[in-house]
Amino acid sequence: MSRHLQIDVFFDFICPWCLIGKRQLEHAQVQFRSRHPDVNMSTVWHGVQLLPQLPAEGEPFADFYRQRLGSADAVSLRQAQVQQAAAAVGLNIDLGSIETMPNTADAHRLFERVGAVGNVAQREMLLERLFAAYFSRRENLGCGETLLAIARSCGVDSEVLLDCLKGDATPFAGSAAASSGVPSFQFDRRMTVVGAQPAQALLGAMNQALKDSARERHPA
């Protein structure tokens, strides 16, 4: 009889640690599959809007981080930390090239809608494409036209998405399960790992969740 492992991930598109954590999870999943080929894994991504107070047009990225961290030196240090962690998982994140800190409410609503009407391949492609739009392509995730173009590039009919793009900074009602921070990884709703932890830490949590589930099904 095959077993199942559900992975719930809580994230925001503007958090570089969420993209880094996504890569760490992918590495962990490859290792997990090689060790447990009989286990079916499903991964569900839950949007969390980190900055619902941002205006619909967003704010200048550089100004936002200077105000948040207090100085240009602090911003440079933080960006260097992110780039080093990103490079370790094969990502090239150039925070210095990002122009706008966007309001991500509509991006989350778009992704949620595609999760309801699209197929698995479209959802996975859209998730990756939205991350790339922000961290690699200098695209504004607060722009409705940009979001629709991204969705169309993933094979999604934009007609079914129009009504979920409000364009007025109405906050996204995401999950409260990530109150401890993002990224947050929950395995079978048993084990939770917060932060862009190494793949081995995620793999350990996955293995432990599988063991706990087996003990519940077949108590000693």
End-to-end CA span: 19 Å
Mean pLDDT across all amino acids = 92
- In total, the number of domains comes to 1
The side-by-side strand order for the widest beta sheet comes to 2-1-5-6
Beta percentage is 5-15%
Superfamily (CATH H level) name: Glutaredoxin
Helix content: 40-55%
Integer-rounded radius of gyration: 18 Å
| Name given to the CATH architecture | 3-Layer(aba) Sandwich
Unreliable stretches (pLDDT < 50, length at least 5) are none
What's a concise summary of this model?
The chain is built from seven helices and six strands, in the order βαββααβαααββα.
Your description of this structure?
This protein has 220 residues and is an alpha+beta fold. The protein has a single domain, classed as Glutaredoxin. The chain contains seven helices and six strands, in the order E-H-E-E-H-H-E-H-H-H-E-E-H. A four-stranded mixed β-sheet has the order 2-1-5-6. Helix 4 runs parallel beside helix 6 (144-153). The longest helix is centred in the N-terminal third of the chain and has 20 residues, at 16-35. The chain is globular. The model has no long low-confidence stretch (mean pLDDT 92).
